[in-house]
Design brief:
By secondary structure, this protein is α/β, with parallel strands linked by helices. It is built from 8 helices and 11 strands. Strands 3, 4, 5, 6, 9, 10 and 11 form a 7-stranded mixed sheet that branches. A two-stranded antiparallel ribbon has the order 1-2. Strands 7-8 form a two-stranded parallel ribbon.
Length: about 240
């Protein structure tokens, strides 16, 4: 409220101010008690689920040797959002699947064959029936290119299962629900490469690139170098 030429808080305003001051004091007390943990450096890494079992552990182990006290945030999930997350500064570095590559090779990690993968029972593919597909939820590069290839070949198809989880894809194929488009990397050996045993249409190449934010901390720069080294070694010798 206004008192002569000055603004003074109302009774309710004074109570609110007292609470605000208490909140600030509590925040300062919490920061002091947590000490270095609040100021701990953080690096943020992203990659598709395909790389979590073998590539991620090696990266984390090597990075921990260089920066044992740095907090790592790992986004191991859907491929489609990773590049955008880096661009927005929510991730420092990420490995990304992309069906097209027009760069100079600096950020190219690997070129991989996309294949049709299915269960041991190949009877699920019948010429007179729609091909049952097991895919990630939309959007997904593998899903889209698999569908495009079938439609260009005039092959009817249907969704057998869609899921946000790679484990869900493998579970559905184990159950004999259908086939999927993927790469050979980390595809369970119990499954069959249908690309070689059926007349399914050929799939395009899939590239793995590394994207990083334009402004990296020293720790994030170290992480980026480790990611590139491990990923190239792992994906080009598989």
């Amino acid at each position: 409220m206004r008192s002569k030429n000055k603004l003074v808080p109302t009774e309710a305003g004074q109570k609110l101010l007292a609470y605000a001051e208490q909140m600030i004091d509590l925040n300062d007390e919490a920061a002091a008690s947590l000490g270095a943990r609040l100021s701990m450096a953080t690096v943020r890494l992203g990659m598709p689920q395909d790389f979590a079992d073998k590539i991620l552990p090696r990266i984390l182990k090597l990075f921990a040797k260089e920066h044992p006290n740095v907090h790592v945030e790992a986004d191991i999930g859907r491929n489609y959002a990773l590049a955008e997350e880096v661009k927005l500064g929510r991730l420092d570095v990420a490995l990304v699947f992309t069906p097209e590559y027009h760069g100079n090779g600096e950020n190219l990690i690997a070129e991989m064959d996309m294949i049709w993968v299915g269960p041991a029972d190949q009877e699920i593919i019948k010429n007179d029936e729609a091909i049952p597909l097991v895919t990630f939820n939309f959007p997904c590069e593998f899903r889209q290119h698999g569908i495009d290839a079938l439609e260009q070949a005039n092959r009817p198809w249907r969704y057998a299962l869609t899921t946000p989880s790679l484990a869900g894809v493998w579970a559905a194929i184990s159950a004999g629900l259908g086939i999927t488009a993927r790469t050979k990397y980390q595809t369970p050996k119990k499954f069959i490469e249908f690309s070689k045993t059926t007349n399914l249409p050929r799939l395009p190449k899939m590239f793995v690139t590394q994207v990083e934010h334009s402004a990296l901390t020293p720790a994030a720069h170290t992480l980026s170098k480790i990611v590139k080294s491990v990923a190239i070694e792992e994906l080009t010798t598989e």
